[in-house]
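Duplicate of #3305? Posting structure anyway:
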């Protein structure tokens, strides 16, 4: 009886008998039958590869922030009472439309929008934008997308002399001047705080000196009173002895 031919799976011979016929030497070398070779190792490798690629794609694209809702490239973070501190630090790389309107944002972190290459539209209106040093990044990004009409309804809320001005049209020098004012105010506040601190320390030192001197006076008065009492007692004793001697002599 002739030996059975082997079917090779990953270069490993597997002897199969399908439909009463001997299998072909290798997969795909069909000699009239329908042999089936299940390669478990290759199948597992394919599953692991697909899973790995899916995981890498998810990491690259990022996940939807929990405070927002995402659908078909649209990330909706509007009306979430977000501030600059609570704003998500990143968004999915596949984001095409980002809605940040109707929040309490005063500025955007530097580089936040640069990480979204597919971004086509951003809604920024309805926020409390503070037009100081921190707004320079947003202004620069808006200038690059000057053709976007949605950029024309984003205005300053503070400081007072810039309130209502469109951010995209603000001169850079004017923003830098406001930065200098802010730094001057900070320096002035620091100096005032330092003076107040020094004043409080001086008052505490004066209070300590006052109570120490008062304690010294009280101590001196107590010592003087004790000395006077002791002297009076000695005089009284001498007087008593003198009276007794005088009575005896009479």
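Output from current build:
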């Amino acid at each position: 009886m002739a030996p059975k031919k082997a079917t090779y799976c990953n270069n490993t011979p597997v002897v199969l008998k399908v439909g009463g016929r001997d299998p072909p030497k290798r997969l795909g070398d069909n000699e009239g039958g329908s042999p089936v070779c299940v390669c478990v190792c290759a199948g597992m490798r394919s599953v692991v590869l697909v899973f790995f690629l899916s995981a890498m794609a998810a990491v690259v694209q990022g996940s939807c922030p929990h405070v927002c809702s995402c659908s078909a490239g649209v990330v909706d973070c509007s009306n979430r009472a977000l501030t600059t501190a609570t704003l998500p630090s990143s968004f999915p790389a596949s984001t095409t439309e980002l809605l940040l309107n109707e929040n309490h944002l005063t500025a955007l972190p530097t580089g936040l929008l640069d990480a979204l290459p597919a971004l086509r539209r951003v809604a920024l209106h309805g926020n409390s934008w503070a037009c100081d040093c921190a707004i320079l990044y947003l202004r620069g990004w808006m200038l690059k997308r000057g053709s976007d009409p949605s950029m024309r309804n984003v205005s300053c809320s503070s400081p007072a002399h810039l309130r209502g001005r469109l951010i995209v049209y603000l001169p850079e020098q004017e923003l830098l001047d406001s930065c200098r004012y802010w730094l001057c105010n900070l320096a002035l506040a620091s100096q005032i705080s330092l003076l107040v601190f020094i004043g409080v320390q001086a008052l505490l030192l004066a209070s300590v000196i006052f109570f120490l001197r008062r304690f010294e006076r009280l101590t001196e008065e107590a010592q003087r009173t004790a000395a006077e009492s002791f002297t009076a007692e000695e005089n009284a004793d001498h007087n008593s002895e003198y009276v007794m001697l005088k009575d005896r002599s009479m």
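Confirmed duplicate; merging threads. The mean pLDDT is 76. The two ends are 168 Å apart (CA to CA).
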